[in-house]
Structures
1.
Amino acid sequence: MEYGAATRGALLAAAPLAGARRSRLPLSPPPSPPSIQIQNRLYSMSSLPLKARGVRRCEASLASDYTKASEVADLDWENLGFGIVQTDYMYITKCGQDGNFSEGEMIPFGPIALNPSSGVLNYGQGLFEGLKAYRTTDDSILLFRPEENALRMRTGAERMCMPAPSVEQFVDAVKQTVLANKRWVPPTGKGSLYIRPLLMGSGAVLGLAPAPEYTFIIFVSPVGNYFKEGLAPINLIVEDKFHRATPGGTGSVKTIGNYASVLMAQKIAKEKGYSDVLYLDAVHKKYLEEVSSCNIFVVKGNVISTPAVKGTILPGITRKSIIDVALSKGFQVEERLVSVDELLEADEVFCTGTAVVVSPVGSITYQGKRVEYAGNKGVGVVSQQLYTSLTSLQMGQAEDWLGWTVQLS
């Protein structure tokens, strides 16, 4: 099965409204070297059992072992924050030097054994993904574009010299993990189940080299809003001293080191009362890149502009989805270099990401000057429209005409 075919077909069949246009404008200065070309090789399943590696398997099948998964967890769903909640099970599989991942297993959620000389601990050879599951009004569970996360992990794995699960194995593992932890999926409208796949170099190395063994894990946690403001304006500060990524680096892949490096600037910003940091490019220090863990969009009239993915910016799945939704609504979308000066004239600014979905920006401060949007008291019309359209689709409240959701029984 070719994942994404349904989506592409739907996009081709669905004619955007009059005036809708997507532009990829010429980049100046020149973009980074071409992105890595990924062949979607399907890794075969190894017969090497996890028990041989010291991993204990739950003693029952999905059909009978997860009886309590149909129960509802005893949580305060009305006050669910964005933090880790210990759930029941996690998925694990390993890959040796032959490049093949063993058949994955579901084990109780908890600590894992990791060699202190592992590649991930010593050299940061690791990737992660993030996606969500939603409970619908008829008690079904929906995943949102899991194959896109699988493909992005494979792209990142090649950049980091790591093997990766096939798209099929990744998606199947996500399904298994969600079903095993079904009781932790929040009621409709109360939040979502955040799904965290991890790929790491778990084998021991001393000299700088790819690890000889890799571990792929998926765990989940019920979450509420990422920002405490929820769907309310957040306040950003433009960072012109620290940088998130540089040309030729790893800014376009979801490697773990990209996120530890933003903590200092984020800490300083929050101490000053800001919600997060908006980064500029490291070369010219004038073009928008992204927020610590979100993509950025600038609205002016009917035109929505967002920084082009050119090697230093993560190709967000929510970003990609919002672009398609915006086009379907008749907006013109431009993927290009966006100057920090354009923030002064913008009608609206918003962020996108798996954790935040769409987060409207109420103000941006740059070199001591504060610019407010939507009066800093409400959500902009465009931000609200795109948020409502996307979340309605994610939660099964609107027809999935793009084929983006995967329903679990």
2.
Amino acid sequence: MRKSFITAVAALCIAAAQAQNPKIDGIRREYAAMKADVADLQRAGAKGKWYLLTIDDNAYGRRYVGSDHYRARLNFYYELESESVIPILRFATEDVEADEQRIHREALYTDGQPVYIYEKDSDKDNVERTLFLDAGDPLQYTENNKPLTGNDATDAASVLLWQAENLMKRFEGSFGDSPEDTDLPEDDGGEVIPLGDE
């Protein structure tokens, strides 16, 4: 009787700890919906909800200096802003193979900022790291689903945030300009230069 009571209290404490932050719960729901959309996109094709930009770095496996093998595959799932056709990144995945090391990363974005970052790195004992954010402020950092705090957690969370921001920059760079640079130049009233046989 006592053992089952302790087990029940422990289960309630774990459930309460996981449900403590409604923002994290909302991010988890958004992430689950995005993963379902991505799975559906592969089935639905052109009728899917998102656009997909794929970068396959070193697709043919040429050796990098000092390395036997390197390949990276990035997938950027995005939508287009209806009025200006500016690409808006919603989700990114990155898979890296470097010799024996394997890294898998995912980042979920809302309003141009990362809100969820996941990483699993074979060189670090396959520890799964996650970071939840709200408007750039960390909400929770976990390793193998256990919330961590302190300097080590702060350092690891900073690296994850940097990775997500780096993915965003790579996405924006794929389109040539960041969204802030897409305005057309103003007409300065200068001479119109004819093109072709005009």
3.
Amino acid sequence: MFNLSSIPEDELLSSAELRLYRHQIDEAIADAISDDQALHRINVYEVLKAPRPGQLITQLLDTRLVRHNASRWESFDVSPAVLRWTRERLPNYGLAVEVLHLNQTPRHQGRHVRISRSL
């Protein structure tokens, strides 16, 4: 869920962003990846229906093409989803983030992905 409970009902939102911090990948892995394989695509989706096992119905909100060799914040525009949730009172089933490792061989794919969550 994308938690909106702290926003007063009488407040009007004009935009919303999701900020993700990404770490550069390990040098040992980076050295084995050529420049044309150094791109990742990060996609952020709105989840449109309650998730079922193995099935996620989504709509793309924002996407970014990034290089693997830098640690930095990435900002994604999630305004369309948040405005639907607040103005139109549509259900909030959350957001989904997808990372695609462009042009990587199966040997390297996923070796540097770390998932963490804080509550």
4.
Amino acid sequence: MSQIIGKSAAVCLISLTSLLALGACSPKPAATNEVASTSSATQTATNAVETTAPAAPVAPAAPAATFPTAEDTAKLASLPAPYNQADLANGKRQFAVCKACHTLPSGGPNMVGPNLHKVVGRHSGSIPSFAYSDGLKSAGFSWDYAKLDAYLTNPKAVIADSRMAYAGMPVANNRRDVIAYLKIESEK
């Protein structure tokens, strides 16, 4: 029996060796030809790209608008003190809180609060399309700089039944800056 196993092992070994030898001498497998074919296609595509006309140069993006503009700065200088010393960029940042309830552009809609376009100098409770509290409707004053400053400091201290759900802006420079921002932006 050991002779049979020995002969079988020898036949298997010879067969395996023959297969390996044939594999080493045979032509390259088809997969390699496909890779060569793909390389050829890639080279053709590369050549096509090289012969294509160059793309038109891309125009540089328009520079971002600077704020405040020179015109804003000139208008700021004409405001009464201390508003003529305001930081309009800070006023714009402070107004971001107000935007939750108010709009500023001319013709902007009323929201929870009225549109604030040209609020400086406007009579209290005067936008017909907005439902003001009775206190604001009957207040009888104009929103001058001092009144806006007092109202932004503590709305309920100026108009007890004010619906404005804002505790107030305690920092004087922030109030100065946002009031100047409201005035300058309302001129646009």
